[in-house]
Specification:
Helix content is 33%, strand content 20%. It has 11 helices and 9 strands. A 9-stranded mixed β-sheet has the order 1-2-3-5-4-6-7-8-9, sandwiched between helices.
Length: 323
Amino acid sequence: MSLSDLPLDELRGYRSESVEPADFDQFWAKTLTEARGHDLAARFEPVPTALATLEVFDVTFAGFGGHPVKGWLVLPAGAREPLPVVVEYIGYGGGRGLPHSHLLWASAGFAHFVMDTRGQGAGWNGGDTPDPVGSASSFPGFMTRGVEDPETYYYRRLFTDAVRAVEAARSHPLVDASRTAVLGASQGGGITLAVAGLVPDLLAVAPDVPFLCDFPRATTITDRHPYREVGNYLKTYRGRTETVRRTLGYFDGVHFAARALAPALFSVALEDQTCPPSTVFAAFNAYAHEDKTIEVYDFNDHEGGGAYQQAAQLAWLPARLTA
C-alpha cells in the first residue's frame, strides 16, 4: 500500500476543520459531575497467577452511570512503596483479555492499570464489561451507537469510564496518584487523548496511531472500518449528516488535544489506511502542551511502530514519571 494521504511536509502543518461545539466544556463538565455522583467503589481482588515477578488484581469500579467496569492492576511483585502508574486503554473491538497479556509496564517498575472496554471484547481480546445502555438503530460496531445525540452516544460512556479508570487506579495504596501517565493504541490512543483533555494533572500522554480524531476528514478519506461505519449509517439514514457531525464534534480527539496539559509522545504510520496520517497529525498539531513529539513510521499501516514504539515509550516515559 503506497502513501495515499498528504506528503509529510504538508502533514506537519495540517489543521483540522472539525468544528468544536460551543458548549464542549460544559457538556463534559456536566457528564463527569454526573458520573462522580456515583461512588467510585473501586475493588481490587488478588488474582493467583504463575507470574513470579508480578502481582495481579482483578479490578471493578463504577464508570458512566455507576455501571461496573472491569480492569487489571498489575504490580511488580513485592512492591511496598507507591509507584507511578501507567493507565492503558484498549484498541477497537478488544477487551482487557488475560493478565499475562500485560507484562511490559509492571516489568519496567510501574503500576499498570488496564481498563476493560464496555461492550467490546468479541473482536480479538476478550472483555468482561457489558454496556447496559441500548440505542436506536445503528450500523454494526460502536461508531454509530446513539449517534443521534451526544447525550446518548456510545463514546460519552466510554470516555467517562476512562476518566474514572484514572481515579480508580489512583485510589490503590500502591499507586502514587501524583505520577500518572495514560496511553493506548488506535481506539486506545483516541481514548488517551480524551483523558488528556479531561484530566488536568497527568504527567505524560502517549497516543499511538490514535483513532477518533478529525472526524470530518477521517470519515471521508478512508473506506476502512471503523470510520466507514459512519458512512454506512448515513448511506441508510439520508439527511442526518449534520446531526451526526454535530454529535461527533463532542468526541473529536482534536478538541481534547487542544486542552491537554501534559507532555506527549505520539506515533503515526504514513501508510495507515485505518487512521489516516492526516487525522493523527490533526490531533498532534492541535495538542496544547509544547513538549510534544511524534514518531513517524514511513512504510507502516495501522500496525504502526509496534514493538519499536513501545521501545520509544520505554525510553521517553520514565523521566516524566520518576522525577
